[in-house]
Amino acid sequence: MCCLFTVLVFLGPRAGILVWWLLQPVRWNAAFQSFIWPLLGFIFVPWMTLMYVLVAPGGITGFDWVWLGLGLVADIAWWGGAAGRKKVPGYTGQY
After folding, report:
1. Cα 54 to Cα 70: distance, rounded to the nearest angstrom
2. Which of 1, 8, 57, 70 has the most CB atoms less than 10 A away?
3. pLDDT score, position 91
4. Is 0.90 topped by the overall pTM?
5. DSSP letter at 94?
């Protein structure tokens, strides 16, 4: 798990998904029944996909929904933040 968190910090959630999938493919098979859902999660909602794999193998109950919600909020913030910079008039990206 330490390697996963290091990859997340330096390379982002998609790299974390790849590393975790390579290190623990059995956990990913327990969380997903087909290949399409993790692929779509990798493309569109990587933080929520990571959270789902973290909580799904034991069953999603109680506080697990909070973790899934945080993953969704992180994905929405990422998508919104990337689009929001282009809407600011006069923003050049330089200080």
Report:
1. 13
2. 8
3. 62
4. no
5. -
